[in-house]
Specification:
The complex is a heterodimer of chains A (about 280) and B (about 325). Chain A is mainly α and about 280 residues long. Chain A contains twelve helices and no strands. Classes of the chains: A mainly alpha (about 280), B alpha/beta (about 325). At the A-B interface, helix 1, helix 2, helix 5 and helix 6 of A face helix 2, helix 3, helix 4, helix 5 and helix 6 of B.
């Protein structure tokens, strides 16, 4: 009986030096959440898909530009090379949803919250870890996508370089945009708690709304279009203001609007998460 | 020490936990008993802060669990064997749990050894059997070397070896002065492990006493008799103030008289007895009798007799008459 059950005194608990042993801290919860995100396969599949989709579609779009059809003086070679972001915003969205919805779908949330009942601490650490992973991966991906795209377009002498105005901001902006998309999706995952439902909502907001708005009368579109989340957010990875109608927000303004949407979803989700039954 | 005061949880119209007040003391195993759906799991979720009470409070050493400064040092809980991400290895599961409370990494290896999962530590939990899942859940509960342990139906679906292991583990933990709070719908299991009992039915506290008190208070000693002169003995027993019920197997069960009284009565009246045996009610039966009304109420819609079926079945198994 005693062989399996008697607990050895826990290492370190008797020493004054380890005063924080057993007391949750933000640094400790960050480590915990990083262990969680690095120890499941879905993270690696999602991030691999993010890299492949962004670079692949960016390269395809860049190749298309060399075959004619680019818009002369207003051609945005940076934006063209980052065009894969239109698709990969959804890939990071899927990971953002999964990071939190998988806690619910697997039942892990019961272990998480019974070992760390301070929900605000847990969810803040989880969001930070995910945001850092998304930003770092996004940064690598956007720079890679930019250089691949410019290499393809350089043959036609239509490429851009990082030293040109706004180009560095746009490439960094691509990573910021992915991070914000991921956090928006994370918010929906926390709010809805079901993987499929949350992913559907994210696709609806980022894709379907953008398409539906085209059905509005053009006089309305002039007022509405720039506020559409995807249209506001994507301005951060352009280098030349859009020439057409309806007019869009300036890059940072548009990105701020997009972050505002993400913040609304996140704040609502966290407020609800702290109150409701898990 | 776990203390609940007026603890109530409603889900819409349904009252899952109804004004529960109890305390769970250290140094012994407190069994938390009730039929399925009685509110045991909900009560445990309320204690652990997973759900919020509609009214009332529940505290651990005087504080709500959500405000405890060292949650894993204070409480270790196994709610079910599936409270984990199956894609994660056993080691990484325990590691992320330990890190959240700043517990040393070495502790992960210790508890893996303690529950006997060292050899499969690197394997993904999705391939684990139910018993291995239970062990992994218990390992997580033990990580913080906690003063209070809570297990929700820990032996459900386990093989005899696993049941014995958990039973011995709980006994050893209680012997070390810890608070052990374990739920079950199986009386026989509690009879073997628990020192103290909290019995609930339909969310209400029905009994709060020791196991011995529970049996004594909720069952009576009866006498099983086999005789060729059944009618004669039945009349004699009735005259002496006892009652007789017929058993299905040709014996009768006498209550209200003790075995020596029945024997004397038969001897004095020249009634031949082929069998005379005292029958002590088991905890299982005491529980059945106590919660029968609440079970019937819950299953009341399809009709009473169906709901009472399993109750009668159990009693036949324990040699008693319904």
């Amino acid at each position: 009986m005693a062989t399996t059950s008697t607990l050895a005194p826990m290492a370190g608990t008797g020493h004054a030096a380890s005063g924080r042993t057993g007391t949750p801290t933000f640094a400790g919860v960050l480590r915990s959440e990083f262990t969680k995100i690095r120890s499941v396969r879905s993270t690696y599949w999602s991030l691999l898909a993010l890299v492949v989709v962004t670079i692949g579609f960016g390269a395809l779009a860049s190749y298309g530009a060399t075959r004619g059809g680019h818009g002369g003086p207003f051609f945005d070679a940076t934006q063209r090379s980052l065009g894969g972001l239109y698709i990969s915003q959804l890939v990071i969205g899927v990971l953002g949803v999964l990071v939190i919805s998988s806690e619910y779908s697997t039942g892990m949330i019961r272990t998480t919250l019974t070992t760390l009942p301070r929900r605000g601490l847990m969810i803040a650490a989880k969001a930070v870890v995910f945001a850092v992973v998304a930003f770092v991966t996004g940064l690598i991906t956007c720079f890679a996508s930019f250089f691949v795209g410019q290499a393809i377009m350089s043959s036609d002498h239509i490429g851009a370089s990082l030293s040109q105005p706004n180009v560095l901001r746009a490439v960094l902006g691509g990573a910021l945009f992915l991070t914000a998309c991921g956090l928006l999706a994370f918010g929906f995952g926390l709010l809805i708690r079901h993987t499929a439902g949350a992913i559907t909502t994210v696709v609806g907001l980022l894709f379907v709304v953008t398409i539906l708005v085209n059905l509005l009368p053009s006089t309305w579109q002039n007022h509405v279009d720039k506020w559409i989340p995807a249209m506001a957010g994507t301005q951060i990875w352009t280098t030349i203001p859009s020439q057409g109608q309806p007019a869009m927000f300036a890059p940072w303004t548009g990105f701020a609007v997009f972050c505002g949407y993400a913040a609304i979803v996140l704040i609502a989700a966290v407020a609800l998460f702290r109150k409701r039954d898990a | 020490m776990i203390e609940a005061r007026g603890l109530t949880k409603r889900y819409g119209e349904t009252v899952a936990v109804d004004n529960l007040s109890f305390s769970v003391a250290p140094g012994k195993i407190t069994g938390f008993l009730g039929p399925n759906g009685a509110g045991k799991t909900t009560t445990m979720r309320l204690i652990l802060g997973l759900d919020r009470p509609t009214s009332g409070t529940v505290t651990i050493e005087g504080r709500p669990f959500t405000q405890v400064t060292q949650p894993m040092r204070q409480v270790g809980a196994l709610l079910d064997a599936k409270a984990l991400h199956g894609g994660r290895s056993a080691y990484n599961h325990l590691l992320c749990v330990a890190q959240s409370n700043n517990l040393p990494k070495a502790r992960v290896d210790e508890v893996l050894g303690l529950v006997g999962l060292t050899d499969v530590a690197g394997k993904r939990a999705t391939g684990f059997s139910l018993g291995m899942g239970q062990r992994l859940g218990i390992a997580a509960a033990l990580l913080g070397d906690p003063q209070i342990l809570m297990f929700d139906e820990p032996v459900n679906g386990l093989d005899p070896e696993g049941i014995l292991w958990i039973r011995n583990l709980m006994k050893a933990l209680a012997a070390e002065g810890r608070t052990v709070f374990v739920s079950s719908h199986l009386m026989s299991e509690m009879e073997n492990t628990a020192d103290h009992l909290l019995v609930i039915g339909r969310g209400k506290l029905i009994a709060d006493c020791t196991v011995d008190e529970f049996i004594a208070a909720n069952s009576q000693l009866t006498v099983r008799v086999r005789t060729p002169q059944q009618d004669q003995l039945t009349k004699l027993v009735a005259t002496a103030g006892g009652t007789v019920r017929e058993n299905g197997d040709g014996t009768i069960v006498i209550s209200g008289l003790d075995p020596s009284q029945v024997g004397d009565l038969a001897y004095e009246n020249s009634v031949r007895l082929h069998e005379l045996a005292p029958v002590h009610a088991s905890l299982e039966q005491a529980f059945m009798e106590l919660t029968a009304s609440s079970v019937q109420f819950r299953a009341g819609v399809p009709g009473g007799p169906g709901a009472a079926g399993p109750v009668a079945g159990e009693q036949v198994l324990t040699g008693e008459v319904a």
